[in-house]
Write a structure and sequence with these properties.
Blueprint (H helix, E strand, L loop, with lengths): L7 E6 L3 H13 L3 E7 L2 H9 L6 E5 L7 H11 L4 E6 L4 H9 L4 E4 L4 H14 L5 H15 L5 H5 L1
Parallel strand pairs: 1-2, 1-3, 3-4, 4-5
Length: 159
């Protein structure tokens, strides 16, 4: 449960208009959350942020034309480090998830989550600064363990 009654502003970036507009309506229905703006790609997101429309949280699609979610996330983290990013995708593969987290996202949500999980993720990112569901956490750990199992290059052994 959120500790503060402060209004939380959310921005949405997703190239699927119907999904984005429905998501905006859902977010706006949550107590304390307001949609500051919604855009269809990372370039439009960048433009809105540069025009001083600064949200608390960005729900950011991973795959968008122009400037994708990874590039957008890195840009946000560099230029607006106070803005929290939640990756949003249909991709549940560990590489996509890990790449988004490494780009600076505070969490990752699949587009098929229930509305209550979206609210839980928003609250968690605002209060604990991160959110990963049990399923996503398992994929991240699996991917990181797989990376750890890669053979060490011979050059690093002699150093």
């Amino acid at each position: 449960m959120p500790l503060s009654s402060k209004r939380i502003f959310v921005a949405l970036a997703d190239d699927h208009t119907l999904f984005r507009k429905a998501l905006a309506g859902l977010v706006a229905s949550f107590d304390r959350y307001s949609v500051l703006f919604d855009v269809e790609n990372g370039l439009q997101l960048k433009e809105q942020l540069e025009n001083h429309k600064i949200p608390d949280v960005v729900l950011l699609d991973v795959n968008m034309p122009g400037m994708n979610g990874y590039e957008s996330c890195k840009w946000i983290v560099k230029n607006f480090p106070q803005v929290k990013v939640l990756g949003l995708s249909m991709n549940s593969d560990e590489n996509s998830i890990i790449k988004m987290i490494k780009s600076g996202a505070k969490g990752y949500l699949l587009k098929n989550v229930e509305p209550d999980e979206l609210l839980k993720a928003l609250d968690s990112v605002m209060n604990q600064n991160f959110y990963l569901s049990a399923d996503i956490s398992a994929k991240v750990i699996s991917g990181l363990n797989r990376e750890a199992d890669l053979p060490v290059e011979a050059a690093s052994l002699s150093e």
